[in-house]
Specification:
37% of the residues lie in helices and 23% in strands. It is of the alpha/beta class and 288 residues long. The strands form four sheets. It has a five-stranded mixed beta sheet with strand order 4-3-5-12-6, with helices on one face. Strands 10-7-11 form a three-stranded antiparallel beta sheet, covered by helices on one side. A two-stranded antiparallel sheet has the order 1-2. The chain is globular and about 65 Å long.
Length: 288
């Protein structure tokens, strides 16, 4: 089999069915540039042109039509393979996505409670970086996720486990670190961290400086990278106020953001009893 991953084939199928890159990007809850790059990479790997431009969008080439016919069968087969492998392993599986330290906030109660209810379920954990606030749900990598809001939630169900105020992470020698709160006006002109291109715009607008007029900062993917950028270079970054911080940093409440919710999330199309059970266990262990 050629070396094409299933995500690239899902992207291709969406464009083929929508006949339009913009509509396909909306359906996939991503921006158009990374989708276009993924299709170009797929064409390069296969050595063929898959789409032709039309006044209304795109149309499949002869090669594209063949790939589309094969893709549907391949994606269905991939789903069956996953189910058969789980059966052969002698037990059910549940793939759980986490974002940064989101799972750690409830893991001490969630893990033993779920294991007590489902001792024979094989749980795998997929940790995502800040470029994917759904922690693998959108990409079909996981069944359920522990993450933070806000993100584009079309097609995704959520249950709030805890609401946490957001603060600006500052070095202790920053004059603003002595304040009880700061606003966007206080931070005007500062250098902010940036998230990877193609990241959910709702998530990006909340967790970065958004419309701040400061210089563009580095593109970072993890919480620790953001904290180190503040510590070493004084770059501005946001974090939940309960985020553990390295020595020399503090989080001052940011008055221009509502609290972020720690949530358990799942695809609304999910029919797995294990997903429902996981959500129930997570909710039962949330803070009162």
């Amino acid at each position: 089999m050629f070396g094409v991953d299933l995500r690239a084939l899902r992207y291709f199928a969406a464009v083929a069915e929508e006949r339009h890159f913009g509509r396909a990007a909306g359906r996939l809850h991503m921006t158009q540039p990374p989708l276009s790059r993924a299709i170009r990479q797929l064409e390069d790997e296969l050595g063929v042109v898959l789409f032709e431009r039309t006044p209304k969008g795109v149309a499949l080439t002869a090669a594209g039509s063949v790939l589309y016919d094969e893709t549907g069968a391949l994606l269905r087969r991939a789903g069956r393979i996953r189910s058969r492998v789980a059966d052969a392993a002698g037990g059910a599986t549940l793939a759980v996505g986490t974002l940064a330290d989101a799972a750690e906030h409830v893991g001490t109660r969630l893990v033993p409670a779920f294991r007590a209810r489902h001792p024979h379920v094989n749980v795998t954990v997929h940790e995502s970086d800040l470029g994917d606030p759904t922690a693998g749900l959108r990409a079909g990598l996981v069944d359920v996720a522990m993450t933070r809001t806000p993100f584009e939630s079309t097609g995704i169900g959520t249950r709030v486990l805890r609401s946490v105020p957001v603060g600006v992470v500052l070095r202790d020698d920053d004059p603003l670190a002595r304040r009880t709160s700061v606003s966007s006006a206080d931070l005007r002109g500062r250098r902010w961290v940036r998230l990877p291109e193609g990241t959910d715009p709702v998530w990006t607008a909340y967790w970065t400086g958004g419309g701040q007029d400061g210089a563009a900062g580095p593109v970072l993917r993890t919480v620790q990278e953001c904290l180190q950028a503040v510590l070493w270079n004084g770059t501005s970054a946001l974090a939940p106020v309960d985020q553990p911080l390295p020595a020399g940093l503090s989080a001052v409440p940011f008055s221009d953001r509502p609290p972020s919710d720690l949530v358990v999330a799942w695809p609304k199309t999910a029919r797995s009893p294990l997903v429902r059970s996981f959500v129930q266990v997570a909710e039962s262990g949330r803070d009162s």
